[in-house]
Q: What sequence folds into this?
């Protein structure tokens, strides 16, 4: 594989995940606070993806959560067949109970978060903290596998120290416990995103298991996708914050979509419309401001544009700022300003 055209042909091949199949191997990465209903709808309008993932849902809350009021555990009925619900928790029973609710609602599958390294999550023994307790992590996967028949996916990191063999062993443990696919982010948990991901470890995980492995980490341009597949042999690509920066990148990589200069203005406005459709004004403003750093990272003067854009207390003010700052397309960067990829 040497070109974006060959990558497109590869990504457009079907892939079995458990008892189901996806038609496209480029998927949205599970992300806390960013993979919400409005953003998923925005990505859907561009198309070109194989799977979408919800934001991070608390397993203890999911069984009784009300989708009508929850900002996280909510969805459009038409997206269920291509959306995976992401959950976090430290207890096998509560994770299994959450998975049963997720399957009953009709989601494509359930994703177990063993990768989030945010302190507030890890202090609760959840997310990447579970990689310190490999037995418990595998037990959670097993409990969820026994609870549901839909695909069970796991996202995880290298661990808490740079040990590629540990990452491979964890992949094997998750497969034995019943996972149908892995999303692997090759960074150690303490680093968050401060150092470059070690893509070669994705290859070690892929070689260690027989289930699909989605490679994740620093996929900025199509040539990065070519390199990751060539280097690791991974069966698919998982894109997170770069997809927030450029929601059309799935269509760009897998359908040959060519964005026009005005796409930044129209996309930002559409994001405000979708947020207002699904949420009250105050929450919509907060969610747009979480989206904004990644989106503004596209621009040469990203910090200045972001600072001006964020001076808003309502969605109407945000739209006014977007018109003022983006209607005449600002100069863009080939690779976004990763300093804003917080």
A:
């Amino acid at each position: 594989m040497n070109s974006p055209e060959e990558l497109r042909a590869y990504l457009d091949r079907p892939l079995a995940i458990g008892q189901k199949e996806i038609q496209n191997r480029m998927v949205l990465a599970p992300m806390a606070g960013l993979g919400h209903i409005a953003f998923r709808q925005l990505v859907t309008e561009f198309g070109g993806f194989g799977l979408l993932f919800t934001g991070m849902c608390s397993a203890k809350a999911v069984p009784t959560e009300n989708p009508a009021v929850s900002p996280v555990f909510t969805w459009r009925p038409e997206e269920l067949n291509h959306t995976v619900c992401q959950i976090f928790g430290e207890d096998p029973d509560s994770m299994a109970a959450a998975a049963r609710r997720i399957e009953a609602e009709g989601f494509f599958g359930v994703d177990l978060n063993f990768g989030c390294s945010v302190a507030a999550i890890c202090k609760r023994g959840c997310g990447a903290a579970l990689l310190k307790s490999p037995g418990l992590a595998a037990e959670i996967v097993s409990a969820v596998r026994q609870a549901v028949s839909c695909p069970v996916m796991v996202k995880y990191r290298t661990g808490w120290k740079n040990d590629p063999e540990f990452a491979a062993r964890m992949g094997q443990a998750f497969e034995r416990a019943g996972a149908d696919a892995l999303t692997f982010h090759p960074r150690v948990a303490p680093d968050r995103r401060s150092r470059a991901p070690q893509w070669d470890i994705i290859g070690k995980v892929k070689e260690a298991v027989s289930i699909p492995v989605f490679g994740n980490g620093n996929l900025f341009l199509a040539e990065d996708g070519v390199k990751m597949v060539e280097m690791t042999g991974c069966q698919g690509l998982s894109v997170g914050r770069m997809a927030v920066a450029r929601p059309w990148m799935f269509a760009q990589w897998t359908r040959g979509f060519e964005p026009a200069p005005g796409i930044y203005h129209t996309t930002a406005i559409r994001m405000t419309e979708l947020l207002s459709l699904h949420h009250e004004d105050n929450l919509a403003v907060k969610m747009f401001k979480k989206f904004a750093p990644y989106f503004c990272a596209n621009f040469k003067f990203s910090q200045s544009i972001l600072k001006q854009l964020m001076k808003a207390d309502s969605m109407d003010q945000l739209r006014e700022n977007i018109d003022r700052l983006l209607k005449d397309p600002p100069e863009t960067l080939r690779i976004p300003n990763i300093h804003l990829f917080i």
Summary: The chain has two domains: 4-255, 263-340. The chain has a mean pLDDT of 96. The chain has 14 helices and ten strands.
